[in-house]
């Protein structure tokens, strides 16, 4: 903001901006007064837009912006003056400024020069076009993801086989670290959740089966559901949320800070050091956690059975023994290592896809969790079809 | 309004002390910033140059001491006064600190949207004007910060700092991370904007080229206070302090000093 006189403190009424247009001889004059600053710009803008552009009756009429009465001006004010002057010029009036101080003149000339720049148009597309485009983008995105994930699976398998031939490539410290983080530290939360879900399913089962007098069968339902589906699904989803996202965040932030490039130049293979230990740790941890989840689900059902059915522990265990086959347990358990591979692959791959910025890290962490959970559920559905096909 | 030697003091800092844990960074720091000057704050790392800027702008609270902005003490300020003062300055953070979810144009319009009620067409006009004034091409307007180079992000950050035509701009290491050509361009830009907009510029910098080409005055932070202020050439001629001696008379300073390169004249 430029002031006409630095030492002068303006009284409030002198700050109020204003203008009037007058015709003196053959000159149309816009006499501006007060503070033409951005704070007053909205008022000035509407008033100036309402102003009719004078039409010169003969070509020798001229225009003048008399700014001697302006006490303060900034770029917004200069821009408004400039806009008006340009409109006057367009209608055939040669327009000049009068009463500008040196600093006002510099600002106004700068604004004049800068206003001429062309502006890029933003392309506005119709709703339908953009809808179709988004759909196609999403579809090709799914295809690209599938290709990338398959490729990555191949890379990891190759790295794993190489490691089997050259066992010194295995990183035990890293493996144990991840086993601790993905396995041991997930125990409390997974135990609690599976226990609660087991209890809830038992309670709901009893309520729903009671009208048929079939409430003892709630135990069958809980036992089979917990072992075949709930144990593995809940555990896998929790691990995808806990560890899959952590893998993406850890590897992604290393990628962001060029640590992974640094590793490559030092002759360290990030596959060996970052990806394999994580996936292997998960392949070991997830079946163990699933086993724990199964047990806790059954325990939760047992507690609820005691509360709503009055079934004590020994009766409950006897009933479980009648209902549960080893194949039910295996049908759940067999999915665990596959789910672990999916979660590990998606987590590491998304991490490696992170680019320079923090936003990129955030979006990849989110998409790692979403994709991992989605794929785990798809896997579960495929297994359900396969296992019923072979009669398990 | 505080007037000293015929010049208005826009920022006055008196008796500032601040410590982080057991580490005391200043003890009794005094500083005056005059209207219309370009002031550079220099000092070794860890002397609290950036923290001083944060104290003046109210982002960090000092332990003791007083900051007066436009003659008003920050201690006795009501929240409304504070808001009014905040509209009168603009800050350029080191990497621009642009909002990553907004385009450059929207970034420049954020202060206008928050503090004023302007019609959209007017805000667009103003934002394009500011964009052009900081030397960015119009096609940068609809880009996101992540699509810009470091130098362009700084310029866009400066455009946002200038959105409301402030009286003071704070620049935190404006030329850090720019190549020499980009840094020289930025120096010229600062000088040019300072003249056209009548700005007071407060900058934290290490860049000797910037100091010698555009700064009117330098304040040196050392020994937990401002040990000296003066024009760059004055400090080079009479350092009177070991750190200033080393800084202004070292190898790099000799290469940057005005004997070797012309100063940008005040009305270039």
- Rg of chain B over CA atoms, rounded to whole Å, is 19 Å
Number of strands of chain A: 5
Strand content of chain A: 5-15%
| Percent strand of chain B | 25-35%
Kindly state the percentage of residues in helix of chain B: 25-40%
The unreliable regions of chain A are: none
The H/E string of chain B reads EEEEHEEHEHHHEHEHEEHHH
Could you name the ranges of chain B where pLDDT drops below 50 across 5 or more consecutive residues? none
Provide mean pLDDT of chain B, rounded.
Answer: 86
Secondary-structure class of chain A: alpha/beta
Number of domains of chain B: 1
Number of DSSP helical runs of chain B: 10
Looking at the chains present, what oligomeric state does this protein adopt?
heterodimer
Q: What summary fits the major beta sheet of chain A?
A: 5 strands, mixed
In round numbers, the mean pLDDT of chain A is 89
Description:
- The complex is a heterodimer of chains A (392) and B (268).
- In chain A, 70% of the residues lie in helices and 9% in strands.
- Chain A is an alpha/beta fold and 392 residues long.
- Chain A has two domains: 2-115, STAS domain (Transcription Regulator spoIIAA, 2-Layer Sandwich), CATH 3.30.750.24; 156-389, no CATH class.
- In chain A, strands 1, 2, 3, 4 and 5 form a five-stranded mixed beta sheet that branches.
- In chain A, helix 3 (75-90) links the parallel strand 4 (62-73) and strand 5 (94-98).
- The longest helix of chain A is centred in the middle third of the chain and has 40 residues, at 217-256.
- Chain A is elongated, with a radius of gyration of 37 Å.
- Chain B is α/β, with parallel strands linked by helices and 268 residues long.
- Chain B has a single domain (37-63, 77-256), classed as P-loop containing nucleotide triphosphate hydrolases (Rossmann fold).
- Chain B is 37% helix and 26% strand.
- Chain B is built from ten helices and eleven strands.
- Chain B has helices at 49-56, 79-86, 104-115, 120-133, 150-161, 180-197, 208-214, 232-237, 242-249, 251-256, and strands at 2-4, 7-20, 23-34, 38-43, 64-69, 72-73, 89-92, 168-172, 200-204, 217-222, 225-230.
- In chain B, the strands form two sheets. Chain B has a six-stranded mixed beta sheet with strand order 7-8-9-4-10-11, sandwiched between helices.
- The model of chain B has no long low-confidence stretch (mean pLDDT 86).
């Amino acid at each position: 903001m430029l002031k006409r006189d630095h030492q002068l403190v303006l009284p409030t009424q002198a700050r109020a901006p204003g203008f009037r247009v007058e015709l003196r001889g053959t000159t149309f004059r816009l006499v501006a007064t007060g503070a033409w600053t951005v704070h007053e710009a909205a008022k000035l803008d509407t008033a100036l837009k309402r102003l009719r552009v004078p039409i010169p009756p003969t070509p020798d009429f001229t225009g003048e912006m008399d700014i001697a009465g302006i006490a303060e001006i900034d770029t917004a004010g200069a821009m408004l003056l400039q806009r008006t002057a340009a409109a006057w010029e367009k209608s055939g009036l040669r327009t000049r400024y009068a009463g500008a101080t040196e600093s006002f003149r510099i600002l106004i000339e700068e604004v004049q020069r800068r206003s001429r720049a062309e502006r890029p148009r933003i392309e506005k597309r119709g709703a339908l076009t953009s809808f179709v485009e988004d759909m196609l983008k999403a579809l090709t995105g799914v295809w690209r993801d599938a290709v990338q994930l398959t490729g990555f699976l191949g890379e990891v398998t190759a790295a794993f086989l190489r490691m089997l031939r050259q066992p010194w490539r295995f990183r035990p410290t890293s493996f144990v670290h991840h086993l601790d983080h993905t396995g041991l530290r997930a125990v409390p939360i997974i135990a609690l959740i599976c226990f609660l879900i087991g209890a809830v399913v038992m309670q709901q089962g009893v309520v729903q089966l009671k009208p048929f007098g079939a409430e003892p069968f709630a135990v069958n339902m809980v036992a089979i559901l917990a072992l075949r589906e709930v144990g593995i699904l809940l555990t896998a989803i929790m691990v995808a949320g806990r560890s899959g996202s952590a893998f993406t965040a850890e590897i992604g932030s290393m990628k962001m800070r060029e640590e992974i490039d640094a590793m490559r130049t030092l002759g360290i293979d990030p596959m060996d050091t970052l990806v394999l230990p994580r996936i292997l740790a998960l392949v070991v941890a997830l079946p163990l956690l699933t086993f724990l989840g199964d047990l806790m689900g059954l325990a939760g059902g047992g507690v609820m059975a005691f509360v709503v059915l009055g079934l004590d522990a020994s009766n409950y265990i006897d009933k479980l023994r009648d209902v549960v086959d080893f194949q039910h347990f295996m049908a759940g358990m067999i999915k665990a290592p596959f789910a672990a591979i999916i979660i590990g692959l998606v987590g590491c791959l998304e991490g490696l896809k992170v680019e320079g910025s923090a936003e990129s890290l955030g979006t990849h962490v989110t998409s790692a969790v979403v994709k991992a959970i989605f794929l785990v559920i798809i896997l579960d559905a495929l297994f359900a079809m396969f296992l019923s096909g072979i009669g398990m | 309004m505080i007037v000293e030697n015929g010049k208005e003091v826009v920022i006055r800092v008196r008796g500032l002390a601040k410590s982080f844990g057991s580490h005391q960074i200043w003890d009794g720091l005094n500083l005056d910033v005059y209207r219309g000057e370009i002031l550079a704050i220099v000092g070794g790392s860890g002397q609290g140059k950036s923290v001083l800027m944060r104290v003046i702008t109210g982002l960090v609270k000092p332990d003791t001491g007083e900051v007066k902005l436009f003659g008003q003490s920050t201690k006795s300020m009501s929240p409304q006064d504070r808001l009014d003062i905040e509209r009168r300055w603009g800050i350029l953070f080191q990497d621009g600190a642009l909002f990553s979810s907004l385009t450059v144009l929207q970034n420049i319009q954020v202060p206008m949207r928050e503090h004023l009620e302007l019609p959209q067409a007017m805000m667009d006009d103003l934002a394009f004007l500011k964009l052009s004034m900081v030397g960015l091409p119009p096609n940068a307007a609809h880009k996101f910060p992540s699509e810009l180079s470091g130098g362009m992000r700084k310029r866009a950050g400066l455009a946002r700092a200038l959105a409301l035509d402030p009286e003071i701009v704070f620049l935190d290491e404006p030329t850090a991370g720019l190549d020499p050509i980009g840094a020289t361009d930025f120096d010229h830009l600062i000088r040019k904007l300072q003249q056209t907009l009548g700005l007071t510029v407060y900058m934290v910098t290490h860049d000797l080229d910037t100091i010698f080409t555009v700064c009117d005055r330098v304040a040196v932070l050392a020994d937990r206070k401002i040990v000296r202020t003066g024009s760059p050439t004055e400090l080079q001629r009479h350092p009177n302090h070991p750190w200033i001696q080393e800084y202004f008379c070292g190898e790099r300073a000799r290469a940057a000093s005005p004997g070797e390169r012309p100063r940008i004249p005040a009305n270039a």
